[in-house]
Amino acid sequence: MKRSLGxxxxxxxxxxxFPITREAAAQRSGPVESRTLVGHVFSLQDQPVQKAIVYLxxxxxxxxxxxxxxxxxxxxxxxxxxxxDYEVYAEHEGxxxxxxxxxxxxxxxxxxxxxxxx
Length: 118
Description:
5-stranded antiparallel sheet, 4-stranded mixed sheet, 2 helices, 9 strands, globular
């Protein structure tokens, strides 16, 4: 009984001193800089599209964020992880743009991607 209690105590002490989590591993490898994606959505006639829905998909977690474009067709996603690929596309009234990728290897703090509806 004493031996198993000693093993449990040792295991708990080890777990507290050396946490093995994703967060701990990420902290050891250094901070991941956040970045921003900005851009515009245009129609086939090269006019800015207001109220288009821009979809941003994190290819690692599959989480999707959306943004409704401004009057000038602009959109903005901030606080994006620097080491993740993202896919972005826009839709408006049944029209859709091609899907573009923001690569995790792209080191720009602010990337700009223009989307054109088809």
